[in-house]
Design goal:
about 625 residues; alpha/beta; MetI-like fold; 3 domains; eight-stranded mixed sheet; 13 strands; elongated; binds adenosine-5'-diphosphate; binds magnesium ion
């Protein structure tokens, strides 16, 4: 519940609406206690007084009645009628909707056709007809307004209930012997209530307006009783000569309805679980950059070089240091592996390269990414857009999520090509077929017309690779591209990437948590832990003479075929949360060689053996038999 209010308060407009509504409701609750003039006492000697003229604060109306008093009493009445009408419509509508949706079949059909008939009338006409039949009066206006809104609630709630009534947990409840009433009360209702609340919050304002409309026409509250609509109606004849008599109730209606609608929108957003994770705030086109420290310079001739890169997530006052100073580089034709447990910051590092980390909450707080000597972190969005997919392309883990389900893979490949290169349709199509062939999709001419769901997982991943290759990039960043695939398909895709690297001189950054994949594909490996590189070096050296205890323990977790009976040692404990990293080695709590010095100060990534660097003050000794 407190989460709900926090979310609501984050939405400034909704908060404003809430404050105004609380003020208006308090005012109307306190109205009987305020020292107000009698709202119905006629004093024709003092007609049409302007505000502050005479004793009445807001002036008087055409019969000399105190406008302030009438306004407050009228607001009280209008609010009461609006809220009661909403409650009645919601209760009856939701009951009808739940019954229809839960029982389905004939019940549903009969009820919903009745509702449809009600909905077929223009509802204001329906309301007028109901009042005409029942006779004018506020009570009858209330009945009319709730009646015309019942179908709206019934339809909405029925739709939601149908979805819930066929869920497994409802079947389970029925199998466990619960009766219908109990199922509805304990399984269905809790899931429907947010929808009811949302529907109420978005319709209360509407119902207040409808009641005011009926009163305006003289069908609602009867003289001398004031509500906002009847005040407007009575002031109509003096609209030109004494506009204040119309403006005052009109402004009150405007304020109330605006406040309720803003609040209603806020309530809807705050109750929608899908929007809780911040989906309401649309991410910026490139990650936000906020670099305070001096920007490191490009040091060597690498094609792509990350220099002391820091990427953080700022969420609700906490800072998650997902990437805490990463240095990496690749040369043309080289394959660099990044390995580490899940959550170690591999994906965030990869996404930071092209500014693809969602902001908010992501922020690049330091470092640089040099592509051919140009710093991408500070680069304008246009530059990034030009390079994305054209010079640096990504292959993601889940091709199902990256391909659009409603377009053929051909359309998507052609679009990827034409975004960067103005080619004719036919030419782009031929290119797309070539691409599909190059990733060894059989029968590419036909396959190009397939939709993603018509392909197997391995095929879809090949399409993902084809798309990454579409513009002949210089660098491919592959983020666990084979994790979702079986080993045979994985082997094919790895050899495909390897060929491309040799044929086209492609630089590859390959993210994985699989040492087998690294051994097969990569020239160099960087091991990541808690957002930093803890060890880096040639694949051979890392696999044979791992120096960081973490790397060594990680490799001890890998089963070896034909390696005899060896105990697989899981690493005890969990990686530290990146929002509470201390100084010193992040692995210290799980390391069996830990010394006080490990926790005393920051440990640099220092050269150990040729090409091999390690962030540890007690590196593992080289195993003599492995070196030999
Ligand atoms: P992996 O190595 O498995 O690819 P990630 O790079 O995805 O790991 O995540 C690195 C760290 O960043 C994780 O600890 C994760 O909790 C954190 N993180 C990722 N996205 C967010 C986010 N939107 N808000 C807060 N923390 C995040
Ligand atoms: Mg990842």
């Amino acid at each position: 519940m407190s989460g709900f209010f926090k979310l609501l308060a984050r939405n400034r407009l909704a908060l404003g609406g809430l404050i105004v509504m609380v003020a208006v409701v308090l005012l109307s609750l306190l109205t009987p206690l305020l020292p107000l003039a009698n709202p119905d006492v006629i004093d024709t000697a003092n007609r049409f007084k302007l505000p502050l003229e005479g004793t009445a604060l807001l002036g008087t109306d055409h019969l000399g009645r105190d406008l302030l008093s009438r306004l407050l009493w009228g607001t009280r009445l209008s609010l009461a009628v609006g809220f009661v009408a909403a409650a009645v419509a919601a209760t009856l509508g939701a009951t009808i909707g739940i019954v229809a949706g839960f029982y389905g079949g004939k019940t549903d059909n009969i009820i919903m056709r009745g509702v449809d008939m009600l909905m077929a009338f223009p509802y204001i006409l329906l309301a007028l007809a109901i009042v005409a039949a029942l006779g004018p009066g506020l009570m009858n206006a209330l009945i009319a307004v709730s009646a015309v809104n019942i179908p709206f609630f019934a339809r909405n709630i029925r739709g939601v209930t149908v979805g819930i009534a066929h869920k497994e947990f409802v079947d389970a409840a029925r199998l466990s012997g619960m009766g219908d009433l109990r199922i509805i009360a304990t399984e269905v209702l809790p899931n429907v209530i947010p929808v009811i609340v949302i529907a109420i919050s978005t319709t209360v304002g509407w119902m207040i307006l409808e009641t005011a409309g009926l009163s305006f026409l003289g069908l609602g509250s009867q003289p001398p009783q004031a509500d906002l609509g009847s005040m407007l109606g009575e002031a109509r004849s003096a609209l030109i000569t004494n506009p204040n008599t119309s403006i005052i109730p009109g402004a009150m209606i405007l304020i109330i309805v605006m406040a309720i609608n803003l609040l209603g929108d806020g309530v809807r957003d705050a109750l929608d679980p899908r929007l809780k994770s911040g989906a309401l705030s649309r991410p910026m086109p490139a990650t936000r950059v906020d670099r305070k420290a001096p920007i490191p310079t490009a040091s060597d001739d690498a094609l792509l070089a990350l220099r002391d890169l820091h990427t953080q997530f700022h969420v609700k006052g906490r800072v998650y240091k997902a990437v805490g100073g990463v240095d990496l580089s690749v040369r043309p034709g080289e394959c660099l592996g990044i390995i580490g447990e899940s959550g170690s910051g591999k994906s965030v590092t990869a996404l930071s390269v092209m500014g693809l980390v969602a902001s908010p909450p992501g922020v690049i707080t330091g470092g640089a990414v040099y592509y051919q000597g140009q710093d991408l972190v500070g680069a304008p969005y246009e530059t990034l857009r030009r390079l994305r997919g054209d010079s640096v392309a990504y292959i993601f883990q889940d091709p199902q999520a990256t391909l659009h389900p409603l377009y053929t893979i051909g359309d998507q490949l052609i679009e990827a090509v034409r975004v960067h290169h103005p080619k004719g349709k036919a030419e782009a199509r031929a290119h797309a077929i070539d691409l599909l062939k190059s990733v060894r999709i059989p029968n590419a001419e036909d396959r190009i017309n397939s939709y993603p769901h018509e392909l197997s997982g391995g095929m879809r991943q090949r399409v993902g690779i084809a798309m990454a290759l579409a513009n002949d990039p210089e660098v491919i960043i592959a983020d666990e591209p084979t994790t979702a695939l079986d080993v045979t398909v994985q082997a094919q895709i790895l050899s495909l990437l390897d060929d491309l690297r040799r044929e086209r001189g492609l630089a590859i950054i390959f993210i994985t948590h699989d040492f087998g994949v690294v051994a097969q594909l990569c020239d160099r490996v960087a091991v990541m832990y808690a957002g930093r590189i803890v060890e880096e070096g040639p694949t051979e050296a890392i696999l044979n003479t791992a120096a960081h205890p973490y790397t060594a323990r990680l490799m001890a977790c890998v089963p070896e075929l034909g390696g005899g009976r060896r105990r697989l040692a899981a690493i005890p404990g969990l990686p530290p949360g990146v929002d509470q990293l201390g100084i010193g080695c992040a692995f210290a709590d799980r390391c069996d060689k830990v010394q006080p010095a490990c926790r005393a100060a920051d440990i640099p990534l220092a050269p150990l053996r040729p090409g091999q660097k390690v962030r540890c003050i007690h590196p593992e000794p080289a195993r003599p038999e492995a070196v030999a």
